[in-house]
Every structure is written in C-alpha cells, then in structure tokens.
Amino acid sequence: MQFNNESQAQEQKRVDQVEQIIQKQLQNNTDNLAQAQHERRQIELNYGANTRANYIETDDIIETNATLQQQRQLMTSAVSNEVIFQQKQQALKSLVGSPYFGRIDIKEDGEQDTLYIGTSSLTDNQGQFLIYDWRAPIASIYYNGTLGLVHYDSPIGKQEVQLQRKRQFSIRQGQIENMFDTNETIGDEFLKNALSQTSSAQMKNIVATIQRSQNQIIRNTTADLLIVQGAAGSGKTSTVMQRIAYLLYHSRQNLNAEQIILFSPNNLFSNYIAEVLPSLGEKNMRQVTLHTLLARRLHGLQIQTPFERYEQEQHHFPQAAQQVRQYKDSLDFVQALQNYAQHSDISCAFNDLIFEGQIFFSKSYIQQIYQKLPAALSSADKFLQTKNHLIKALKHRLQKEAQADWVLEAIDDLSTTEFQNLEQQKHLSQYSSDHQQQILAHYVLKRHYLPVYDALYNDYYFDIFQLYQNFLTQLQPPKMAATVWQETIADLQEDLERHYLQLDDAAAILYLRQLVTGSGQNRHIKYLFIDEMQDYSALQLAYIQNSFPQAKLTLLGDIEQNVYAPKNLSQERFQTLTQLLPQKKAALITLNQSYRATAAITNLAKQFIPSGAQIQSFNRQGQTPTLFQTTAANLSTVTGQLADKLAKKHRSVAIITKNIQQAQTLQQHLGNQVLLLQEESTAIPDGIIVLPVYLAKGLEFDCVIGYDISAANYQTSGDWGILYTIATRALHELYFTSTPKIAAIFHKINPQTLNIQKLN
Ligand SMILES: Nc1ncnc2c1ncn2[C@@H]1O[C@H](COP(=O)(O)OP(=O)(O)OP(=O)(O)O)[C@@H](O)[C@H]1O
C-alpha cells in the first residue's frame, strides 16, 4: 500500500527524532571511548614500568609478581571497557542515516504496541526501545508472519500476538525515500530495488529484505546438521552470513566469533564476504579453505590445489583416472578407511625412534607394547596408551640416569641466569639440598632428552604415509582392474618422493591419522559452515567433521554447480551426507527461488541443468541474453569489443573461461585494460576481468560473457553444470561468444530465451 503525505510526514518526524538521539548518544559514547582509551594507556605505561622491576632478591620477586598480577587485572578490565564502548560506537554509526527498515504493529495480551526494526537495537534514556535489533525474538514475525495471529519463539516459550501492520522503509541520509505496508513477507518492490543495484566488490547484508525460507535457515537453532540445497543465486551465502550474525547475538554469553569457522571455496570469495558481519556490528568468523587446512597440517609437503587438479583433468583425464577419482570420492572409500583404522593392526607403521644416531626405542619394542593391549580398545585409545607407555619408559630412564657423571657435570655448568630462572619457577631455596639436586638433575636430563620428548609428543615414531600405503594396498575397489589400482599406489609413492601429495590423498592421510592417533581435533569450534559443499568429496567432509567434533554443521551447496566433480557424483554425495556425518538432528532446506539475476538470465540458465524446471526466477526485467558467433580467428577480438562496450555502462564485466589457459591467452590478446584473476588473487577490481570458472564460484558481476562456448570446448553433458555456473554469475546482462559450431546443449535451448547473432 502506498501512503498519503501525512503518514509519511509523521514517520519522517520520528526518523528525525531518532536520528537526533543517535547523534547525541554517539557524542557521549565518543567521550566515553576516549576516556576508556586514556585509562587503558595509563595502565599500559605502569605495566611497562613494573615489568622492569628487580628480580634478584626473592622478596622482590614475590612483590613484583603480586603487582604484575594486579596490573594485569586492571588491564583486562580496562580493555573490556574499551571494547564495550567500541562496539557501541560501531552499532550507533551503523544506524546513522538509516536507523531502521521495518515497523510492526502488534497486539499482545490486549496491549497495543509499535516496534521499529533495524540492524541493531537502540534505547532512550529511560530504557525504552526505539529500535529493535532484527535478531530479537519478536522481530522474527516481521520476516515470517502475514497479518493476523502469529507466533514467535521467546526465551520464555512460544508467544502469540496479533500482527496488525507490517511496514517497510527505505531510509537514506535520514530521509524516507520509500515506504510500504505489506501483508506478505518482505514485499517485491523493496527486494527488486535491492537487486537492481550494481554489483559491489563486497557482499552486502540482506537484513532488510530477508525472505521467509531464508529466515528459517537463519533462525534454526535446533538442527545440528543443517543442509541447504539452493539454486544459484538463491541467497545461500547471504543467508549463512546473517545466520552467523544471528547465532552470535543469541548466544552472546557462550559463543564468540573465534568459535565459528567457515570453509570457503577460495581467497577471492573469502575477501568478497569479509564485510558482511562487520556491517552488522559483528566480528568476522574464522575463514579457511580446505587446501589451507591440509597444507598447514601436512607442513613440508606440497599439496595439490583443487584448481590444479581441475586444470590437470581438463588436459588429461583418462577413463582409468576417472574411475579412481570416483572411487576415492565415494562413501565406500570413506567406510573402507574407517574400517581399516578401527580394525587393523597398525603396528606395521611404527618406526625406530632414533636419538643422537642411536635407536632409543626400537620398532619391535613399540610394536610389542601396542600388540599387548586389549583388542577391544579403539585404535585411538591403543595409540594413546602406547604413547603413554613410551613416555613412562623415558621417565624411568631419566630417573636411572640422575646420578650419572655427565648429569652432575652439567649441573655444575649451569649458568647464573639458568639458576635464577629455576629459582623463580621451582622455588629451589625452599627445599633441602638433596631435593634441590634432584630438581636440577631432572632439569638437565629433560633438557638433554628434549628431542625424544618431542618425537613422542609429535608421533615421529609413527609413519602415517606407510600406513596409508598399506591401507591402499589391501583394498580392492569394485569393478576396477587390479593394474589400475596398483598404478595409483605407485603414483602415490612417486609423489611422496618429491614431497608432493594429491588433494584426495592429503585429506585421506590426515583423516586416517586422526582416526588412528586421536590427535588433530579442535574441540573449541562450536559452529562449522561449509559453502559450495558439492565440491567436497565424502572423505573430505568426514575429515572436516571429525576435525571439529563439537561443532554443529551447516552445509550449503548446489548440486548443479558441480564444476569439479565427474558427472553424476554430486547427487550421490547429497544422499550419503546423513549417512556419513554422525549428527543426530538433521534438517534439509531447499531454496528454489533465485534472486541474483534478471528473469531473462535465470530462465536461460536453468535450461542448462536437468532439475532446472524447479528453479523460480525473480520477477526483475532485463535483456534477453545474447550469443555472438564468429570465426575462431575473430573470437577474442569480438569478446574484447563486447566487454569494452559493456564496461562503459557497468561497474563490473567478467569474461569467464573454462580454464586458466584460455583466460591467459585471452588476456594477452586483449591487453592491459583487462585484468586476469588467478588462484592467488584476493580482490575483485572494477572494470573488465577475465577469470576461469572455478574462481568465479560464489561471486557475481553486473555483466558476464561466457567465452568460447563452442562444441569443442564444452563437449560432454558433464560440462553443462559449468555453463550453468557461468551464466548464473550475472546480475544484469549475460552474453556468450562462440565459434560457428556451438555446444550441443545450445541446440535444445528455447529460442525465445536466447538471441543468436552471427558475425563474420
Ligand atoms: N533476501 C534477499 N534480499 C536482498 N538480496 C538478496 C536476498 N537474497 C539473496 N539476495 C541477493 O542475491 C544474490 C545472490 O545471493 P548469494 O550469493 O547469497 O546466493 P548463493 O545461493 O550463495 O549463490 P551461488 O550459489 O550462485 O553462489 C546476492 O546479490 C544477494 O545479495
């Protein structure tokens, strides 16, 4: 419903009042913040002075320690004061100019109330709410409810209210530009407006226009495995970012951003989403790519990246290699690995522990310890008990050596500084001289045998690579020639010799290590998010889950955007997820409405994939996509000219190729006004860029040109998913260029959804 001027004037009056209050609070808070910063700096100065205190006399040490302790407490409280004012500052600043976007009129327990909703809450001096945070329980009815009797979940249980009015605002620089009353979830007009904007280098938050199905994902706190299958552009990533903000708000007391981790497809994407949470007044969660995690944990080895693998497979991917890849991606492979870890005798992978060129613990000694343990114990327990046994044996050896001549000599040789440190840590002077001697001997011995301790704690006597090879050797993948499998094992051996590991093997080795040794788990993480989950194999997912065993999982993806997977694997992947992950309360939410692109683009793109009929386009008008056909010799020039023309009207124009080599060749042809994005790139510049499809994952551009969609380039039905991914990166305009013989899928396209122009 549109408004008369009087209603709008009344609303504008309220906006003005709220704006004034925000400015006033901002001023007060700036003063408070400056004061808190000053106090913190003073304490820092004192702290510095005290740390230079006298450490020679025992009394001085005790006194200095007490003072330091006190200073530390003061510092902690000063820092936390400052953080509170900083957060408030950020929240207030985010309200300036656009304090809220929604209003609801409700009747609850017979009482009438009007609530305004914005990105964070604001109260006046009497504690009355002027704005409610969009994450407050009551605000959920703004997103969910149509008018009438509605419910919302509050800390004291389900509440029932009459929703009498829902109003949306667009307020900029303190002026109401537009306002609407709506009976629906968030009205089309506002959404259309938000979606018609040009692209930006950073993803924006969507709090003002969250849709009902997205809201279900954002506010779900019951599922411990939430799977979101959503069409391209349906808002999966946006939703997940708002979900993180929601979770942080709701569990303020026992959840912080450090306990949330998001697996993202690449660094460009990580950078693209980095501003969403700060724009909502929250700190960013941790972000990692699978490759970074693997490389960090397999330090010293070079790990194949998903992009390298894709590129290699583009050039050479024979039938046998495809078969191996399919098997290593399958649930069967994961189960075989789990089974092996649990039930096999892993003692073959123990090694002699060498110290100063001599065997310290022999392989057979370690094997005996392991094999004597009860068979019913889990592998990880057996491993741990073996390790504990070795540590005990080392301690025993240390005790026996305490009186050795070299130890006594080493005690005599201790420096004054070492003595002072020991005095401080162990309070030597409190003990009898015999006891002091024992402490010093223990210190000297521990220092000497530190490499042995190190080897024990870091499992250097255990060869995980050997164990993995043994595991592969005893496997017989179904329907695969024995020679193919043996070759795979030989390839692994060769890779290891040159300190290289393929992506599949890296994850499998780490997973096996985790299962067998029980190490490498991070129990601190409470929420784990995986975006573009269709790109992960069953094993990679199992490994990630096991790495963060306490985390609730949210997995998002689109089975159709399976750029990396050999065809038909993805469907299987989704079905096996619930089998694979031990979570109990699983929920699956499907998003079929695509928001990113104009209806014309979505209606074309959905024809590239088998399940396209389910995808609903958003009612936003735009030009019909166009395909330019030209000769092979002219293809780059035609693409460049088209890009130039588009760049005059739009902020971002992306030419998307099938692989890096095509991107490089094209960029060289087009010259420096076109920027090539590569695996190492971290930011998306304005203007014309050229990039391979896998780097475009999760991103969006005003205009997209799918380069060279000729039959020679896109040959099999497995390639249609790639075309779908390319097409769905476009917000406003979509083009393709090709040589005269176009990919077969284009012959099946409804001619009304694609213009074809033949050029020379
Ligand atoms: N409720 C919404 N309000 C406003 N904009 C929205 C909404 N939902 C999605 N969008 C916009 O639609 C576009 C696509 O969203 P997003 O990138 O989150 O989708 P996605 O499902 O992760 O896409 P893909 O799988 O293709 O990477 C973004 O520009 C986002 O801002």
Automatic annotation (TrEMBL):
SUPFAM superfamilies: P-loop containing nucleoside triphosphate hydrolases. ATP binds at G230, A231, A232, G233, S234, G235, K236, T237. It comes from the Bacteria. Residues 209-598 form the UvrD-like helicase ATP-binding domain. InterPro entries: DNA_helicase_UvrD/REP, HelD_bacillota, P-loop_NTPase, UvrD-like_ATP-bd, UvrD-like_helicase_C. This is Putative DNA helicase. Gene3D superfamilies: P-loop containing nucleotide triphosphate hydrolases. One of its GO terms (biological process) is recombinational repair. GO terms for molecular function: 3'-5' DNA helicase activity; ATP binding; DNA binding; hydrolase activity. Keywords: ATP-binding, Helicase, Hydrolase, Nucleotide-binding. GO terms for cellular component: cytosol. PANTHER family: DNA HELICASE IV, UVRD / RECB / PCRA DNA HELICASE FAMILY MEMBER.
